[in-house]
Amino acid sequence: MSSLPNYLLIARKRLALTQEEVAFLLGFSGESKGGRVSRYENFTHEPDLQIALGFERIYATPAHELFAGIREEMDQRILARAKVLRHRLGNESNPGRDELVNDLIAGIPEL
Amino acid sequence: MMTSQHNRILATPYSAHGLGYAVLEKTRGLIVFGNRRIRGNKNAVALAQVESWIKRYQPDVIVLPKVNTPGARHSVRIRRLHRSMLALAKRKGMNAVEVAPSTLKTCILGRPVGTKQQLFEAIAQRFPAELGSRIPRPRKLWTSEDSRAGAFEAIALGLSVLESQYGLPGELPQGVTRDRHLTRAVAR
């Protein structure tokens, strides 16, 4: 079972915050600012980096835990690309780079 | 009753006004909960709603209240909805688990009898941050059920199945033992 794209809703409910309040803290404006938070919570939109870091700060939870599904998806993509990169590099040797690529293929370390 | 380990659970109890829902995970515990009020063609809308939750949260099991227990007084509409839910789960290739009210109470309260209010308070004790301020008001004889009751019932349903398998999450009330089989969860 893969993780859900994000766990923003339960993080907000743990702090008893409303979507409007979170939207205010993130600096959203307009009548539907709470709706924007709702769209992130329901996985219909993905937040940009600034907003993701804002969620991390507000909920005091690391972004890789809040956005666990996105992180897992990214890990898979990097793993696939690392294999391609190793194949492309062939016999070119660079100890630091080779070690990194091999580490990525062996398993992306937990943060 | 259960043959496989469930990692993500969607629980949806029925009510006259709509559906409660809760999503729980083995590792993270309570993920999502709420109540959806349904109007119009209730069964059709409820089924569409559950289908959208399945698509969004991709649970591997759906937990439903058992409606055909002896003495149950569910309406014809609810019984029809229950059959449709079971068919939906089958169509989606998911496990469906039915939990009887007495089993639910045994698991949450440690005894097979108790009021819904006691159940809600026991659930709120386990998740004080998320639910402490949301306990439904005690029902009077002349009032209808609080709209938050559906969400609490959903959490109770999901928790009973999750706990029967993993002993997770939250703290058990005093006097309740953990057991891998719901039917054998008994008070000390």
Topology, pairings included?
The complex is a heterodimer of chains A (111) and B (188).
Chain A: H1 8-14, H2 19-26, H3 33-41, H4 49-59, H5 63-66, H6 68-89, H7 95-106
Helix pairs in contact in A: 2-3, 6-7
Chain B: E1 8-11, E2 18-25, E3 29-37, H1 42-57, E4 61-65, H2 76-91, E5 95-99, H3 101-109, H4 116-126, H5 128-131, H6 149-166
Parallel strand pairs in B: 1-4, 4-5
Antiparallel strand pairs in B: 1-2, 2-3
Helix pairs in contact in B: 1-2, 3-6, 4-6
Task: Offer a concise description of the structure.
The complex is a heterodimer of chains A (111) and B (188). By secondary structure, chain A is mostly helical. Chain A is 66% helix and 0% strand.
Look at the helices and sheets of chain A and give the structural class: mainly alpha
Shape of chain B: globular
Helical amount of chain A: 55-70%
SS summary, helix count of chain A = 7
**Average predicted local confidence, pLDDT of chain B:** 84
Count the DSSP helices of chain B: 6
What does the oligomeric state look like here?
heterodimer
- Distance linking N and C termini of chain A: 20 Å
**Mean pLDDT across all amino acids of chain A:** 90
Biggest sheet details of chain A: none
**Strand runs of chain B, count:** 5
| Unreliable residue stretches of chain A | none
Radius of gyration of chain A: 18 Å
Indicate the structural class of chain B: alpha/beta
Largest sheet descriptor of chain B: 5 strands, mixed
Query: Could you spell the SSE succession of chain A in H and E letters?
Result: HHHHHHH
Measured by DSSP, the beta-strand proportion of chain B falls in 15-25%
The portion of residues forming beta strands of chain A comes to under 5%
Protein architecture, described:
The complex is a heterodimer of chains A (111) and B (188). Chain A is mostly helical and 111 residues long. Chain A starts with 7 loop residues before the first helix and ends in a 5-residue tail after the last helix. The model of chain A has no long low-confidence stretch (mean pLDDT 90). Chain B is built from six helices and five strands. Chain B has 188 residues and is α/β, with parallel strands linked by helices. A five-stranded mixed β-sheet of chain B has the order 3-2-1-4-5, with helices on both faces. Chain B starts with 7 loop residues before the first strand and ends in a 22-residue tail after the last helix. In chain B, α1 packs parallel to α2. Chain B is globular. Chain B is 39% helix and 16% strand. Chains A and B meet through α1 of A and β3 of B.
